[in-house]
Amino acid sequence: MRYLETKKARIEIIPMIDIMLFLLVFFAMLTLRMIPTSGHITKLPTSSTATMVPPPKLLVEISADGSLLVEKQVITPQQLTALLLQRGSAKTAVTIAGNDTASLQQVMSVIDAIKAGGASEISLATRNANK
């Protein structure tokens, strides 16, 4: 007669897999929710929340008449796209610096030219409004 049978201990792994899959889906959905879907966020010349960023690999300046200055040369948006494609790096950090009279349409055409060139890091230069 056996009164006390010793059972071998078992770790159930299926509930743990269910929990891990739930966490994976939860964090994936949370991450997708953080990505802004409203388009380009533009902060033109002054901002009270302006912060310092590392120096850009390429600085694009929009002058008062709407022309683009890159490396002290006046270029068109098509030439900007060609320049970025020539560099070939998708991690090229591009900063757009405009003046007070730059229109939103001019900024958007520069952003479109930069995206067509394959750059993925675009920032807008501002000056601190508190100074």
Task: Quickly list its features.
single chain; 131 residues; alpha/beta; Nucleotidyltransferase, domain 5; five-stranded mixed sheet; two-stranded parallel ribbon; 7 strands
Tally of DSSP helical segments: 3
- Classify the helix fraction into a percent range: 25-40%
What fold name goes in the CATH topology slot of the domain at 46-128?
Answer: Nucleotidyltransferase, domain 5
The chain-level structural class is alpha/beta
Largest sheet: 5 strands, mixed
Shape: elongated
Number of strands: 7
Strand order of the largest sheet: 4-3-2-5-6
Beta-strand content estimate: 15-25%
Give helix and strand order, one letter per element, not per position: HEEEEHEHEE
- Rg computed from alpha carbons, rounded to a whole number of angstroms: 26 Å
CATH architecture of the domain at 46-128: 2-Layer Sandwich
Could you give the distance between the termini? Answer: 90 Å
Poorly predicted runs are 37-44
Q: Write down the overall mean pLDDT.
A: 76
Under the CATH scheme, which class of the domain at 46-128?
Answer: Alpha Beta
Oligomeric state of the chains in view: single chain
